[in-house]
Specification:
By secondary structure, the protein is an alpha+beta fold. It has helices spanning 7-24, 28-34, 39-48, 66-77, 81-101, 104-115, 231-267, 279-307, 313-338, 349-356, 366-378, and strands at 121-124, 140-143, 147-158, 165-171, 181-187, 193-198, 209-220, 269-270, 273-274. It starts with 6 loop residues before the first helix and ends with a helix. The relative contact order is 0.12.
Amino acid sequence: MNFELTEEQILIRETAKEFTNNHLLPGVIERDENQQFPKDQIKKLGELGFMGMMVDPKYGGGGMDTVSYVLAMEEFSKVDASTSVIVSVNNSLVCWGIETYGNDFQKEKYLSLLATGEKIGAFCLSEPEAGSDATSQRTTAIEKENHYLLNGTKNWITNGNSASIYLVIAQTHPEKGHKGINVFIVEKDFEGFVVGPKENKLGIRGSDTHSIMFTDVKVPKENRIGEDGFGFKFAMKTLSGGRIGIAAQALGIASGSLEFSLKYSKERKAFGKEINKHQAIAFKLAEMATEVEAARLLCIKAAWLKDNGMNYDEASAVAKLYSSDLAMKASVEAVQIHGGYGFVKEYHVERLMRDAKITQIYEGTSEIQKIVISRSILS
């Protein structure tokens, strides 16, 4: 196995790193404090090709591989997980779902807008009573002559108000259970589409999270993706790839925790010497570095499997489970290493600790990842 990155992958990583330092780090504390959506940063990311990294260039995408996507996500997430989750949802859920399973009409109409960042996408699966149990969809899509009539509520929608194009999972044939679920492309300006209030969150406060309500929303039949009843399979396969993005986000939070801690440990002195000269701190840093490297390899393995057309369901679950647990552990250690300074916003690590928690929850909780992994190894 070759662990050497290509010249293109190195360039993408360096471009993402430079963007992070020049455009994400400045103002990140204020955006978090004020729950401010990073509108200007997302526009620039679209111009650089990061909003549709893996999309075919004929639709305005970057045509990059998933490994490159992981490298970029890690860099963004070291500083600003709010921005990175916006990038993740647009890339690995919305763009990938439409490009992989949509028809030519859907790709021509929507994909180029999303891939260039001109429009932002959102993925609508979770409901008040359907989070981890994605089969229990209460949102309905009743088939009419030339459209579907959409009714229901979706919860915890990333990019809820900032998006213009939404992939909505809904139940069309309740008697068929999960085989009666469909997925639809819904535009924000469709009549009956209502965005609820913004959630006041613990972390990733710069991304906007809302409930979405549908009341007799007419969705053209040509906006259904795939065959009738394909929605549940669409959601599960799309989430499997999305977990690679969230795993990379968690990796970035852990990696950022390490980098901030290394920097601080070289500046802060205690008992007459830099604190990294004390074994208690040096060993913490060594353990963090080891675990970050392990998480990085798990993320890259899952991405490599996806790029090579191999089954990546278990690998993406493993990467997300390990990396999200590490994000929590490493960020807590970073606060500890910083001591009292770690408890204030100026030093960034308290934000990383708050941002880390959601990686154990969204796009499949850690418990769901264990179900996926256990089924795979026991089959």
